[in-house]
User: Fold these one by one.
Assistant:
Number 1:
Amino acid sequence: MTLSVNQQLRFRAKSVEFRLPLAVERAATRLIPGLSTDPWLPAEKKLEVIFTHIPKSAGTSIVDALFGQKSRHIPVLRYAAFDEKRFADSFKFTFVRNPWSRIHSAYHYLNRVVGKGDKFVDWTWATHYLSDTPTFEDFILRLKDRRYRSAIKRYVHFRDQMDWISIPGRGNVMNFVGRFESLDADFEHVCEVLARQDLVLPQLRPGAGKDYREAYTSQMVDIVADLYRRDIDSLGYEF
């Protein structure tokens, strides 16, 4: 399945948003229909928070527990551009994940929908980019191709985690960065900050339960280390 020209342009436009200076993003939220919608969920406004859901980092369960609805992926930059005062007054938090584990999870999540049709954008994207990489090792080794790597990293599931939580020129703007690896304890901390100790975190999208490290060769470890060097250095992860 080949991506249409319109789909390719949409993916590239979405990628550009992460790199825009705040002033340009602010102008874009007033001019571009896709960016002009209020990024705050009603429950986020009520709690005076911003939760930046980085794909494949338990965000679906967190949004369900805190806000009682489906999640979506919006970079923190868009919040700052849309309402600077509310942004400054909000408690901003996110959850991150070991990059080697996260890419392993993202690949298998998308590989399951290869060839399923074009009902959802994930299905179309996965069929276009993952049909020739039927195994995780095939996929990682193909990332040595710079052109393929660039296309993969433009997609939301594979972007640097720092892209989601940073503003160009200001870096990471989160008040709290929780970790997938200490999910329960860090979610409990968020609940304490929000005075919502009554909440229980559901497990809506459980993984396979296998140790991601078993899927890697030393060469694959190095490829992912190069791919996500920014996240590894900024967030303090190692294989």
Number 2:
Amino acid sequence: MHFKKPDVSDLEPAHKRLLEKSKIAVVVPCFNEEKNLGVVVNTVPDYVDHIVLVDDKSTDRTLALAKEMSVSNPKIVVLELPENEGVGGAIAAGYEWCRDNQMHAAAVMAGDAQMDPQELPLLLVPVLNKSANYTKGNRLLYKEAFNLIPRVRFFGNSLLSLLTKFASGYWSISDTQCGYTVADINVLNSIDWQKMYKRYGQPNDLLISLNINNFVVKDIIVRPVYNVGEKSGIKISRVIFTISRVILTGAIKRLYWKYVVKDFHPLILFFAFGMLMLLIGFMFLAHVVFGFFDGGSVPNVSLICALFSFGTAFNSLFFSMWLDMVEGRNLN
């Protein structure tokens, strides 16, 4: 698939004026993208003011190619990371440049040409008209998503999206691993980018931080793009556990900062009680299992206590989730 540079005349007049009067940057994280980088740069729409190419210590000609293109294209800014930090680290560096140069909106388009530039206005307009602070692409809701996305990625992404809903508080958001995003100046100024997770769990970690800061996030349906010569560095079996750890620690951080430090909310009590009862339930369950293998019989009292503890735990946890959904309904 080969993208064409979007024709600005195809935009609605109101959207065209909004895009042309705003300071917009596109951040392109790059790691060994010499094959597709030229395609990405050459198809960035004309209304974009700056193209920030962030080289994540590539081992091919990506950096040299970026510098060559910057000579003939004054919009291009080339940033070199001193060491490989991962895609999250490259995005963070680009965001910091956009923050320091007071961009109204900073979009992220990967250097592997998997993001259709025709869809960029769909993500930019809600941010520029201030109906959202952050927009992100959602490939899972695209009508042909199941046939276009490799099966392993589809199910892995769906699982991580489900976990991120619980952790981030953005219950209507999915396809959390999609890197096609736009952040406004408030997001750029509020987040400490050096403290963000710098590898493939960055989108999940960022959503959690956005919720802590009460930013409005919107999903935008975009078309999945594969088989354009991209080379993924993601090993699903390896990163799913790493990202899950990021999600779990982030969930605890969000609940603590949002519902204890910033503004106390009783849902934290239901959550704490639910976790306590869950722990007690596992302790009784362990006693049941030990009794069965040691003496061949099930301790009835321990079994009843385990079932009661689990039932109470799940009721309390589900209630805390419902309260969290109600509390964050205006952020989606």
Number 3:
Amino acid sequence: MRCALYARFSTELQNQESISDQFRQCERVAKIQGLEIVSRFEDRGISGGTSERPGYQALLTAARVSAFEVIVCEDISRVWRNRSEYGQRSAELEDLGVHLLTCVGDDTRREGWGLVLGIKQAIAEAARREISYRTRRGMEGLALTGKSTGGKCYGYGPGEATTVLNIFNMAAKGLLPSQIAKALNREGLPGPRSARWSLNAVKRVLGNPRYHGTVLWGRTETKGGAQDSRRKRHVLRPDGPLVSRFDPNLVIV
């Protein structure tokens, strides 16, 4: 029987070498099972909670034209960490006559493995959500202690504080954000990420409480994403930010 190998890692947990490590294990399983490896598919640094993975989509496309009969992967969590996508695609693969074989012993060629894989997939999705929770919890702790939670805020690089102060001074004189942006661009002052100043960039500076020394973290919460972990929306928390503190070292205005 012909087989395709699939490997994936998420940036939160693995590294570049993980792909070759997974393929090595899959090759061993394929050899033991007497399978012919005809193709390999991979996704680097992409969560299994989304179906928007180039390698995964290429794998499905190949399966639909009967390019192989078996998919070999390290574990079911490499292919799916989302119950919605798992339900649809596992049923489709079954109809196509494509089986799933994993390095940890799962084999849909055997009777009764559908239920086992469904349970394991639910566990994989729960693990993904738990990782997300622990990450947020750790970042909240960093914010509470005044440590960086990632990202850079314009205004704290060389010469940027002066520009921020000029923006607020121009606004105090009655200039509109669009007028301020034009004035900054005329002076050749680079904006955030070295881009030209825009109306929205000036608005973001004027509306950022950090320049007054107020640090806010956790102002929004994530909603949705049940069908695709990448398709989420962020809404303001009804009870306000999780962290709000004053840091005199950040005061510019």
